[in-house]
Amino acid sequence: MRALIVMAFVGFGAQLVDGSLGMAYGVTSTTLLLAVGTSPAAASATVHLAEIGTTLASGVSHWRFGNVDWRVVGRVGVPGAVGAFLGATVLSQLSTEAAAPVMAGILLALGVYLLVRFTVRGVPRRLDRAPLKRRFLAPLGLVAGFVDATGGGGWGPVGTPAILATGRLEPRKVIGSIDTSEFLVAISASGGFLLGLGTAGIDMGVVLALLAGGLLAAPLAAWLVRLVPPRLLGAAVGGMIILTNTRSLIRAEVIPLAGAATTAVYAAIVALWIAALAVSWAAWRKERAATAEVGAATALEVPSDRA
Predict the structure, then answer these.
(1) GO CC terms for this protein (predicted)?
(2) Structural contact between residues 198 and 37, judged by C-beta atoms closer than 8 angstroms
């Protein structure tokens, strides 16, 4: 029972992050399931089954708050479902020994991407109103869906930054659209895993615990997307994922370290993580101050214009 309560808190925290950032539910949940000894394919299958419910709730919540562009959902979600099914099929055929370091490597790369992306670049603010084309969204969805299933997460980390970088959709609608389209990806990946694995290794108690926590967090996250500084949250999640999956690779002897060398690597990662959080915090405060100055200047100009 205690383990299930912990998983419910994991689901709540992962969905809170995912609904606010447009990424990291799968990466966070899968990382923690791998850390407690779940096999890679079973971990990804468990997370995707839970995501059927959490992504539906998240999509409805984002829709209610006006955060969804349905053209983007259709154009990226359907190819994403195809990619997810293919990825689930591939992962189901790999042995646990082969799949564990592969998944940890993918998750580590996604963690590095999150940390660098949100620490250095933040979120673009300039918008180009030209619509996003199918020729861009379809390949993006296919790749993101495949990475999501094979890595236990990746739909958001691949899809959200790519669409944000175009500057053609405001951040809250990017996050809402990616979260909503992930419902299609979760269904497709789950179907692929069930065909490839059956129910072997999937603990429905864990699925329901992750689902319960995610359902509670979904509406809160859709509301918080307007308030929480994404730079800080992205850096925090990225650092945690890097640390956890580096540990997995060291334990699998993919990274051949031991003793003092291992401690030194962990210390370096923690130091980098703290530095990234400090940089992200400072950048967010600077952005907030600049926005406040612009608002104050605009307010002062109104009386003079009327005069």
Answers:
(1) plasma membrane
(2) no
Question: What pLDDT does residue 307 have?
Answer: 47
Domain that holds residue 73: 2-306
CA nearest to 30, candidates 15, 46, 12: 46
DSSP codes of every residue in 206-249: HHHHHHHHHHHHHHHHHHHTTTS-HHHHHHHHHHHHHHHHHHHH
> 75 to each of 41, 78, 141, 147, 184, how far by Cα in Å?
28, 6, 8, 18, 12
- For residues 231 and 120, what is the distance between their CA atoms, to the nearest angstrom? 9
What mean pLDDT is predicted for residues 89-109? Answer: 72
Q: Rounded CA gap, 55 and 57, in Å?
A: 5
Check pLDDT > 70 for residue 124.
no
Residues 41-54, buried b or exposed e (16+ Cβ, 10 A)? bbbbbbbbbbbbbb
**pLDDT tens digits along 210-258:** 788 877 776 776 666 566 676 776 777 778 778 777 877 887 777 787 7
Query: How far apart (Å, rounded) are the C-alpha atoms in residues 87 and 193?
Result: 9
CB 6 within 8 A of CB 213: no
Q: Which of 56, 88, 83 is nearest to 144 (CA)?
A: 83
Q: Is the pLDDT of residue 91 over 70?
A: yes
In angstroms, how far is CA 96 from the centroid of its own chain?
A: 24
Domains held by the chain: number: 1
Beta-carbon-side half-sphere exposure of residue 153 (alpha carbons within 13 Å): 33
